[in-house]
Amino acid sequence: MASQLLLLAFLAISSSIALASDPSSLQDFCVADKASVSVNGFACKDSKLVDANDFFFSGLHLPGNTSNPVGSRVTPVNVVQIPGLNTLGISVVRIDYAPWGTNPPHTHPRATEILTVLEGSLQVGIITSNPENRHITKVLQKGDVFVFPVGLVHYQHNVGNSNAVVLAALSSQNPGAITVANTVFGSKPDIPADVLAKAFQVDSNVVFNLQAKF
Ligand SMILES: *[C@@H]1O[C@H](CO)[C@@H](O)[C@H](O)[C@H]1NC(C)=O
Q1: Tell me: the pLDDT tens digits for 173-205?
Q2: Ligand 1 test: best mutation among 62, 67, 75, most atoms within 8 Å of CB?
Q3: Domain spanning 47-174: which CATH class is it, in words?
Q4: Dihedral class, residue 212 (left if φ above 0, else alpha if ψ from -120 to 50, else beta)
Q5: CA distance 204 to 90
Q6: Which of 98, 154, 177, 210 would be a feasible disulfide site paired with 71, CB 3.0-4.6 Å?
Q7: Angle at the Cα of 135 (from 105 to 128), degrees rounded to 5?
Q8: Residue 77: which of 207, 160, 172 has the closest Cα?
Q9: DSSP letter at 44?
Q10: Protein residue with its CA nearest to atom 4 in ligand 1
Q11: Which of 62, 65, 75, 96 to mutate to test the pocket of ligand 1 (most atoms within 8 A of CB)?
């Protein structure tokens, strides 16, 4: 009985704690040892072997190549590029947009994103979860900052004749990205066409056309 009460008390306390980022560090740093077995994140490299390059990345001044069908390019700087980000719950990306280029609707399963426009004008949008699916949208100019809450589908679209550039910070060492079109129409193997025909309320031929593009 006492142990059941303890368990209930524990559940009540633990369920009131909301973890809003990667778990906090219990040491100065835990530079990723990428050769190690990955459990949830990476094991720590021997701290005596850590040097400045473990916390360093160079090249974010370089424009990404936007010659692709969507006209945008994300240059990520997360734990893959900077092993010193392991366990720290933060990362950054540069995104380049060709004129009228789009970073298509996608979500980050593990991160909230805060985006700053460095050059150009962008229409951005968030779509809230079911059942409202409200589209919250705004046109941003140079110097404007916008937030995309964790898990919500969002996009950016260059609404100008010049290139646009943003720098965006994300609240995970490894935010992940799920691009809606690619996951739905570009999965390997395909989701059956009749499933997507029902989901999108279109003819299967429309689905085959879309699947052929991804
Ligand atoms: C950009 O990407 C395109 C398409 O992949 C490629 O043809 C082109 O050479 C690339 N440009 C640069 C500067 O790397």
Answers
A1: 999 999 999 999 999 999 999 999 999 999 999
A2: 67
A3: mainly beta
A4: alpha
A5: 42
A6: 98
A7: 80
A8: 172
A9: B
A10: 67
A11: 65
Q: pLDDT of 116-154, one tens digit each?
A: 999 999 999 999 999 999 999 999 999 999 999 999 999
Q: Are strands 164-170 and 91-97 parallel, antiparallel or unpaired?
A: antiparallel
Describe the strand order of the beta sheet including 135-140 as a list of residue ranges: 135-140, 122-127, 153-158, 102-107, 178-179
CA distance 91 to 55: 12
Whole-angstrom distance, CA of residue 172 vs CA of residue 22? 6
pLDDT single digits (tens) 66-101: 999 999 999 999 999 999 999 999 999 999 999 999
Q: Is the peptide bond before 189 cis (omega within 30 degrees of 0)?
A: yes
Contact 170, 176 (CB under 8 A): no
Q: pLDDT per residue over 106-116, tens digit each?
A: 999 999 999 99
